[in-house]
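Action item from last meeting closed. Structure (159 res):
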C-alpha cells in the first residue's frame, strides 16, 4: 500500500471524492503542515497551529496510482483560490499537496504545469510531508454518516 496527502479545503469533501476512486483503500481526515503537536479541530479552526485540513489517502498501487489520485484532487477543488476554498475561509482551507518523495513531487509539479498551460493561475503549494495528525472521529467519513453531498467541493474536469 502507498500513501498520499492532500489539502484542498474542507477535508470532508476531499475525503468524499477521493475515496470513490477504485483502488483507494482508505481516506482519513486530519491535519498537516503546522507547528502544534496533536492539534484539535478547535485550535486549527482558530488559526492557532498553522495546519491545513488534510486527508491521508492509502491506495493499492496495483489498482490505481498517485497520478490518478492527484488529478482527481485538482478536479474536486479550485486550485486557484488562496486563503479559502469555496464558502470556507481561513488558512486551514488552503490548497496544498504534501509529498512523500521526489516521484510524488514531480507528478504534482507536472500536473500544475499542465493546468498553468491551460490558463489556470494555480496557487497550490507543494510541500514535503510532515507529521499527519488524525482528526477527531466525528470528522471521519462525514458524508457517509450524515445525509447529503458536499457543498464545499464540486467535480470540475480540468485535464
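Sequence:
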Amino acid at each position: 500500500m502507498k500513501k498520499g496527502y492532500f489539502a484542498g479545503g474542507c477535508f470532508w469533501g476531499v475525503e468524499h471524492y477521493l475515496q470513490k476512486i477504485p483502488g483507494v483503500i482508505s481516506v482519513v481526515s486530519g491535519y498537516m503542515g503546522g507547528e502544534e503537536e496533536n492539534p484539535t479541530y478547535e485550535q486549527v479552526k482558530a488559526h492557532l497551529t498553522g495546519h491545513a485540513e488534510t486527508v491521508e489517502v492509502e491506495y493499492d498501487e496495483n489498482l490505481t496510482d498517485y497520478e490518478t489520485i492527484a488529478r482527481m484532487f485538482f478536479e474536486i477543488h479550485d486550485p486557484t483560490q488562496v486563503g479559502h476554498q469555496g464558502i470556507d475561509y481561513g488558512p486551514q482551507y488552503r490548497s496544498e499537496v504534501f509529498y512523500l518523495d521526489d516521484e510524488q513531487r514531480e507528478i504534482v509539479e507536472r500536473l500544475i504545469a499542465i493546468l498553468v498551460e491551460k490558463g489556470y493561475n494555480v496557487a497550490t503549494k507543494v510541500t514535503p510531508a510532515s507529521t499527519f495528525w488524525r482528526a477527531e472521529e466525528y470528522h471521519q467519513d462525514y458524508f457517509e454518516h450524515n445525509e447529503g453531498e458536499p457543498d464545499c467541493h464540486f467535480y470540475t474536469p480540468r485535464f
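Note appended to the action item: Strands lie at 2-8, 24-32, 52-59, 84-85, 88-89, 95-99, 125-128, 133-134.
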